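Reviewers of the previous submission asked for a worked example of the structure-prediction workflow described in the proposal, so we include one complete record here. The input consisted solely of the amino acid sequence. No template or homolog information was supplied to the procedure at any stage.
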Amino acid sequence: MGEVAMCNITIIKEKDLVRDIIVEKLEENLPEHSWTALDSNQFQKKENLIQSDLVIIDLNTNINIQAAIDNFIEQNIRVAIWASDLDDNLLRELFRYGLHGYFYNGMELSELIFATKSMLNDQQYIHPKLSTVLLDDY
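From that input alone, the workflow returned the following structure tokens.
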């Protein structure tokens, strides 16, 4: 994969230990990029001010996820979602969007890094566990 210029990446996920660890590890492994993590309150304050090359949205975040995705797509921002439940109607709906990334809880750090690099190179990433949901629907 070619090198990508510095990018701003925003993770929208409620603040917890898991989020803190994920962001810390991604910063360590992809230091050429700038990482921001927002919880739902921070997101609602900054929603229209987010300048980002890639936004990763946890489906358990307490925001209007589809409205947020529509807004980011309008601004030509790459969007990935992070699912924790395979049997999620929203997940099925969001597959129709053809987003840049579909993450699944419990991804290894190496998968996260690969997925992030892929998306910044305009390639789609779908976690293998989620691809089965996708295939069941079509």
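The chain has a mean pLDDT of 91. We consider this example representative of the routine output the project will generate in years two and three.
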